[in-house]
Amino acid sequence: MSDDHGHNVNYLLIFIFLCFCTLASAICDVLPIPKLAIMVLVLGIATAKALLVMLNFMHLRFEGRWKYVLLAPTTILAIGLPLALMPDVGLHYYMVDVPQAEAVITQHTDHDADEHGANEPAAPGKQDH
Amino acid sequence: MSNTQTAPTVKMGIPIPNSKLGMWLFLGTEIMFFTAFIGSYIVLRLGSDGWPTDPEVTHIRVWAGALNTFVLLSSSYLVVVAHEAMGKHDFKKALKYLCGTFVLACVFLGVKSVEYYGKFQHDILPGNIAETDEQAMLKANSEISGVLTIRLNALVSGDEQKEIKRSALVTEITELKASGEKTDRLAQLNTYIALETSAKALDDAVLAETISLHDYEEKLTAMKANESYGGFLSAKNLVGFPVVHDPHPIVYGNLFASIYFIMTGFHALHIVIGMILFALVIKERERLNEGWSEWVENCGLYWHFVDLVWIFLFPLLYII
User: Rounded to a whole number, what is the distance in Å from the CA of A37 to chain B's nearest CA?
Assistant: First the structure.
């Protein structure tokens, strides 16, 4: 068994602080400040909360140096992934007005022309959808 | 020279139990798993000007996210005090805290279900969201067409094709008119034809690109207010979802919905797995003993990680 028991940590105090942080994040949403400032604030609060949970609830504060051996490679890969994706996906290369919409309209037009001849009484054009 | 073996003075390897090492290695893979989603989301969002953020459009409720954050933090606190109680051999107290954690996990899933219900109700689902005016009108037309099909099947029984059923319906109208009787049946059939005619006019206008979304919305509202057939269009299905949604395009709506569901869905799956792990301890009841201490510790590590993921999902999905 590990030596995690008996640490003198006031878990209740940490929990209350985490709750206040959550409240602060929710309040940030309605603050009349620029969007970028809100983003920085809430992500900063989230990082602080995550550190509190990792250090105290997950006991990383009290663990030996093995934690660096285990977590450093993961962290490097985790940070590297979005950075590697950034040039490919982050560039706004695709259109909002997607070509599928045009294709759907064309299909409907052709379908209606085939299905409803000139002598056909009035009927909805896309009943098969 | 002696061959006597003595105990090594230095213990090799990482000084933690194997199960805990295994859990940390697993959590390492989990970090990469969720970072792939979160990283992709951030990158996609940065590359998509006009990403939907208005709560009236996305139906994202900050209060629900904040409530779930509070619920998960509370459950994390209960797990850590349960582990502490296990260390002090107070297994009764530990069991109580573990039960509390399980209940809070159920509350989390309950709140998430309410949120998911809202998404389904407004059809904010991957692949279902219109991103342009044309798509919004085509989607509404398609839904009206669905209503017409349901009405036609209700009026004309049998397994025949739609066209055959419709011909039968027109023939019946002609016969009833010829008989001179003004029956309820004739009124129902005429209502169908009236709805069909209005739908066809809308359909043609959209296909001919002679109608704006604003005009379309006005016409659809008028159709929904129609005394004879409006009820069919403004009706809701068995689970309370509207049969014809208001035509509101959401730019990047499908990407948003995909990301929302994949991230919150996988997180919810982790919650369910955590509940199973806790249930295995809770079922021990009075038999809970020191032997379960490592299990509780490892489950706790897993649960705190699930909490950590939500700590980042909350601001990323609900606030920014």
Answer: 10
The continuous run of DSSP H or E covering B216 comes out as helix B213-224
A2 pLDDT above the threshold of 80: no
Crossing angle for the helix pair B91-121 and B253-282, to the nearest 10 degrees: 160
Residue among A66, A93, A125 whose CB faces B14 most closely: A66
Q: What is the residue type of B192?
A: Y
In degrees and rounded to multiples of 5, residue A110 shows phi and psi of: -65, -45
Separation of alpha carbons B140 and B244, rounded Å: 6
Question: Which of B28, B141, B312 is closest, CB to CB, to A46?
Answer: B312
Residues of B in contact with A46 (CB under 8 A): 311-312, 314-315
Given a cut of 80, is residue B265 above it in pLDDT? yes
Lowest mean pLDDT across B4-13, B80-89, B94-103, B195-204: B4-13
Q: Do B152 and B166 contact (CB within 8 A), yes or no?
A: yes
Structure confidence at residue A128 as a pLDDT band (50, 70, 90): very low
| Interface subset of A 79-108, CB within 8 angstroms of B | 79, 81-82, 85-86, 89-93, 96-98, 101, 104-105, 108
Mean confidence (pLDDT) of chain B: 90
Is A48 in the B-facing interface, judged by CB distances under 8 Å?
no
Contacts of A121 in chain B (CB under 8 A): 170
Is ipTM > 0.85 here?
no
| Record: contact A42-B301, CB cut-off 8 A | no
SS3 B242: strand
Count of beta carbons in the 10 Å neighbourhood of residue B307: 26
Using CA atoms, how far apart are residues B140 and B134, in angstroms rounded to an integer? Answer: 10
Give the whole-number percent of chain A exceeding pLDDT 90: 32
Helix (H) or strand (E) segment spanning residue B250: none
Instruction: Tell me which chain A residue has its CA closest to the CA of residue B35.
Output: A78
What is each CA distance from B51 to A95, B44, B47, B253, B317, in whole angstroms? 13, 9, 9, 8, 12
